[in-house]
Design a protein that fits this description.
The chain is an alpha/beta fold. Helix content is 38%, strand content 15%. The protein has one domain: Alpha-Beta Complex (Amidase signature (AS) enzymes).
Length: 468
């Protein structure tokens, strides 16, 4: 198999090749390392490439499989992860000069679990500094593989780009207001934010403990399910990790969604939604109806205060974690990031408590609104990827806030903690990705993945590749 073809196999496809010993983990790892070396100077998706370690892990996996020890569908599969996730003995910088030489002496729980599943670590991926909205001035911005002049979304920018461009088979990102789903949408891949607490955050540098999630970014929905299977479950080191039972996330990926009830919002940020996104979303809904799903319009609670509420929580919690560094290394932060983090210092306890109460109220109201449906469908992003230097978005000839356009579709579900899956559902006339978002009930990732998989296998969007 040609190296470039190998690098665009899904995890499930590569796993089958590795299991049957048609492709070796060493062959796959070398193909990815060669592609990284050839292309990443244009994309800037990696901060650290762990080539020597990856090849050693691949040789170990190859020996295990040859001797009859097969650990499952991630065994021998090359992955790379957002550089906010602790990796023992490997720099974990959060894409900041503040931590440019930081080397943890432990692995995050998600890294432990992926290693136990036999995956291979290709390296650590670039991101917005400390998972904020600002690309790293120290490590440089990441470029969208569909158009290098365009933004790949953040903050898990390197994760989205590396998966889309065939520089790893899958990745981990983090999501506080949309940072898995936005780059997944902008890069034409799949991103899953599972229920808050479903995947342990231990070892992930926090932006906001109340809103943070870590999760898979992959080429297909089945791949996201396979990674979630390895990642999900309680962890005693993480006070926020749930003890809810872990499901089998692949058994219902049959393509059959007949009789499922899908909710469509009566109103979902129309002023911020690009016409091409509206058209692609309507077409996606028609596909799901054609597969036998029942669609009904529902009224969501008001979402106008979702982002302001999230900001109060995020500002206060981020400042608490960063305060020691702000006292000693303030000049090492990008100016915008420092300003954002310092803004949280005067947050009043009363304002924080009010925001937490608003968060709890929104969650309850949202679950009540969705009581009669199995999942909620929305656009994955309200706008297509914009040029790097864009400071606003233009919708129907009217200039609107870039932040509002970016965050509105995703942030509400960080506040509610619900599982949310983003996957490609089309392309603009200029060839940029458009996405669908599927939101479920708490700990019902199985149904979210079932709907996403059915849509995916009956549409061609996930098969497209960027020409970079």
């Amino acid at each position: 198999m040609a190296a470039n073809e190998l690098c665009f196999l899904s995890i499930s496809q590569l796993a089958e090749q590795i299991k049957t010993r048609t492709v070796s983990p060493v062959e796959a790892t070398r193909a990815y390392l060669d592609r990284i070396q050839a292309l990443d100077a244009k994309l800037n998706s990696y901060i650290t490439v762990t080539a020597e370690r990856a090849l050693q892990e691949a040789r170990t996996a190859e020996e295990q499989i040859r001797s009859g020890t097969y650990l499952g569908p991630l065994h021998g599969v090359p992955l790379a992860h957002k550089d906010i996730i602790a990796t023992k003995g490997i720099k974990t910088t959060c894409a900041s000069k503040v931590l440019k030489d930081a080397v943890p002496d432990y692995d995050a729980t998600v890294i432990e679990r992926l290693r136990a599943a036999g995956s291979i670590l290709l390296g650590k991926l670039n991101m917005n500094e400390f998972a904020t909205i600002t690309p790293s001035p120290y490590f440089g911005r990441v470029n969208n593989p569909w158009n290098l002049a365009h933004n790949p979304g953040g903050s898990s920018s390197g994760s989205g780009v590396a998966v889309a461009a065939g520089l790893c088979a899958g990745s981990l990102g983090t999501d506080t207001g949309g940072s898995i789903r936005i780059p997944a949408a902008f890069c034409g891949i799949v991103g899953l934010k599972a229920t808050h607490g479903r995947i342990s955050l231990f070892g992930v540098t926090p932006l906001s403990w109340s809103l943070d999630h870590v999760g898979p970014m992959t080429r297909t929905v089945k791949d996201a399910a396979l990674m979630l299977q390895a990642l999900a479950g309680h962890n005693a080191h993480d006070l926020g990790a749930s003890e809810a039972p872990v499901s089998d996330y692949t058994t219902k990926l049959t393509g059959d969604i007949k009789g499922l009830r899908l909710g469509i919002p009566a109103r979902f940020f129309p002023d911020y939604t690009d016409p091409e996104v509206k058209n692609a979303f309507a077409a996606a809904v028609k596909v799901l109806i054609g597969l036998g799903a029942q669609v009904e319009e529902i009224t969501l609670p008001s979402l106008d205060e979702a982002w302001p509420t999230a900001q109060v929580i995020m500002n206060g919690e981020a400042n608490v974690w960063h305060e020691p560094y702000l006292q000693t290394q303030a000049e090492d932060y990008a100016p915008q990031v420092r300003k954002f983090l310092e803004r949280g210092k005067p947050t009043l306890a009363t304002d924080y408590v009010k925001a937490q109460r608003a968060k709890a109220r929104l969650r309850q109201e949202m679950l009540t609104a969705l009581a009669g449906v199995d999942v909620l469908l929305t656009p994955g992003e309200l706008i297509p990827p914009l040029p790097h230097d864009a400071r606003s978005a233009t919708i129907n000839g009217r200039e609107v806030s870039l932040m509002a356009a970016l965050i509105s579709a995703t942030c509400p579900f960080n506040l509610t903690g619900q599982p949310a899956l983003t996957l490609p559902c089309g392309f603009t006339t200029s060839g940029l990705p458009i996405a669908l978002q599927i939101v479920g009930k708490p700990f019902d990732e199985t149904t979210v993945l079932r709907v996403g998989h059915a849509y995916e296998v009956h549409t061609p969007w996930h098969e497209r590749r960027p020409s970079v």
